[in-house]
Request: fold
Amino acid sequence: MKFVHSDVVREGEMCDTNTLKHERSFETLNNPIVGAYAVAILQNGEKPKCLLGKKDLQAIKSKAKTKKVWDEWEGEQSKKSAVRRLVKTLLPQLKHKNAKLEAAIKVENQDYDLGRTIDSEEKPGSPEQIMEILENE
Reply:
């Protein structure tokens, strides 16, 4: 995998679900979220994607153990859900498990596990570090 991108689509924004061309404006930045998507660029040039509508996101949120996090960070949780769903569909297709991707997902999940404590030797990664791991693959 060369690259992964995810974003939310808000009410009033245009997003072509075939090309994922997404047009937004300052006027729509605070509008309700109506969907989320994730797209990956694989080594062979393929671009698999995952689209989640409002009902999908509500169903995921209803099963979440961290509803407070969803309430405070709905956009980030929506993007994360799209990425996780995309990765779940991609892992069986990959010929071997990708240790870097698994490590990046583990680091990313640390930010949202409120009941977990971090060992002194363990250092959580930033979104930039996670993207760097994925881009350097």
Notes: Strands lie at 3-10, 14-15, 22-23, 33-41, 49-53.
